[in-house]
Amino acid sequence: MYKAALDTSGRYASFSLEDNNTKEIICENHSISMGKESSKLVFCIVELLSQHRISFGQIKTWIVGLGPGSYTGLRIGIAYTKGVCFATGASLKGYPSSLAMALAVDSQVNDRLGVLHDGRRETLIVSPYLNKNNIVIPQSDPKIVGRNDIYREEIDQFIILKDDYALLKSINQTLPIVTINYIDSTKLFLIEKLNRERNNLIIEESLEPIYVRPPVFVKPNKVFNIKPNPIREP
Hints:
alpha/beta; Nucleotidyltransferase, domain 5; 2 domains; 5 helices; 11 strands
């Protein structure tokens, strides 16, 4: 039997599959473009499973990244995994994508890590973590910080996605910044393992998405009345 992990919080989605018995990573893909091309996600996962002759029914657990991330991206990932689990009876767990980012960098014991996201309107979202005895644990919920106030944060490493160009351009490069190429969904397996071994002391499981920005209502364009063509009698 297998365990699947999916993260759709960033510019690119990441999907991976793990063997429950051997803990071997069977397959992974982190190049599924989101946004307008997010519909490719479903077909990519189906194709990956087909290549390894694995059915959805053989996947007993799904783990989904909860952000921080875009409203659309997170809703796609959570809705997809919920639908699959409803159809197959698999269990579903969710963990912060920011923790997966924090686990992707090399850090020393007692290092204070801050995962950064662009909150727009001159604000940043900081997800603080601490390397405690080589286990990265959250220090608090993500918090909103002004761009000028970020320099007062006591952080040893700020972690940013390499393709978050607007964020990288807007902050002072003198900050201790570490960039990562993508959110690695295999790190969600590690979070689940640590959470189980520590009896849920690492982080509480949840399916509540962490949005970088709340959804914004956009007024629809005006619809013009178009007169239909007259029906011609045969």
